[in-house]
Amino acid sequence: MENYVLINGVTKTYPNNFKALDQIDLSINKGEIFALLGPNGAGKSTLINTICGILNFESGKILVDNFDIKINYRQTKALIGIVPQELNLEVFETVWNNVNYSRGLYGKPSNHQYIENLLKELSLWDKKDNKLRELSGGMKRRVLIAKALSHEPKILFLDEPTASVDVELRKDMWDIVKRLKKNGVTIILTTHYIEEAEEIADRVGIINNGRIILVDEKERLIKKLGQKILKIELSDPINVIPSNLEKFNLKIDNTKKTLTYTYDTRADKTGITSLLSEIKNQGMILKDLSTEQSS
Questions:
Q1: Residue 22 class from Cβ within 10 Å (0-12 exposed, 13-18 middle, 19+ buried)?
Q2: According to CATH, where is 3.30.70 located in the chain?
Q3: CA distance 238 to 241
Q4: pLDDT in tens, 257-287
Q5: Which residue from 79, 181, 187, 230 could staple onto 261, CB 3.0 to 4.6 Å apart?
Q6: Was domain 227-293 assigned CATH 3.30.70?
Q7: Where in the chain is the domain with CATH 3.40.50.300?
């Protein structure tokens, strides 16, 4: 498949010397839904904001549809739409004015028919004259998507699109994402719900401590996860398993650097995301992840 977004050796360090991205290599295929999975603070939002040109990076290269995002900033900006986590909207404006204004920011001429079709696709047409402050949280998220798609981008970034929403709204958002893919939009979303990645993604990448540690087709990843054993290789050895990790019933090998986690794929949650979060909270640096058949 065609590489639509290509990331080579990208490193991002903040002024406080925190390395948020560490030699990231990643390719996104045209027309796919790619889920970036990882615990809070793993680097998901930093990576998305870097690709979108919101954050600078000190080394590496990012190409979007063969355009360098630093050299060809205008071209790449026109290709990209981003839906942030935060509900930043002009609350005293109407839905219609909000979305049309966003289109104008990209230098696009008015196209009321396109905006009408977009609002209908997102079930917002009957709300077009409502002010944003009158809408529910779920409807506001739909408006954010409409704003991000107002200039007809080819790639849509969704940063934690279903964070802090109820199950019903989460399923509605999943349906919207699937419809957008059918319309030819390439979608990259971040999430810390492995269930979300399983539901809508074509491929899944796992990021932790600013490094991509696994990328695989969803079906292969689910098969791996179905094998019930996750091996976690640490950069540095540990003598004992921290008390906060005891609830995961981990085992440690003779090298003191590899933890083994056994989980039940039939359960509602595998616990993997929580485990990775706890490992990060303990200050333990993850080197690699692998899965194998439970004996």
A1: middle
A2: 227-293
A3: 7
A4: 999 998 776 666 778 888 988 998 899 998 8
A5: 230
A6: yes
A7: 3-209
Specify the pLDDT at position 164.
65
The CATH class that applies to domain 3-209 reads: alpha beta
Hey, what are 97's tokens?
Answer: 């004015």
Instruction: Tell me which H or E stretch contains 284.
Output: none
List 190's β-bridge partners, or say none: 36, 159
**pLDDT value at residue 68:** 96
pTM here is 0.75
Cα separations in angstroms, 55 against 12, 69, 70, 80, 131:
9, 11, 11, 14, 31
Mean pLDDT of the chain: 88
CA–CA separation, 295 and 293 (whole Å): 6
Q: What is the pLDDT of residue 40?
A: 85
Confidence check: pLDDT of 295 > 50: no
Task: Give the residue from 29, 11, 42, 32 showing the smallest Cα distance to 278.
Answer: 42
Q: Which two tokens stand for residue 266?
A: 């039939």
Please give the C-alpha separations between residue 278 and each of 30, 66, 100, 112, 289, in angstroms, as whole numbers: 34, 38, 43, 49, 15
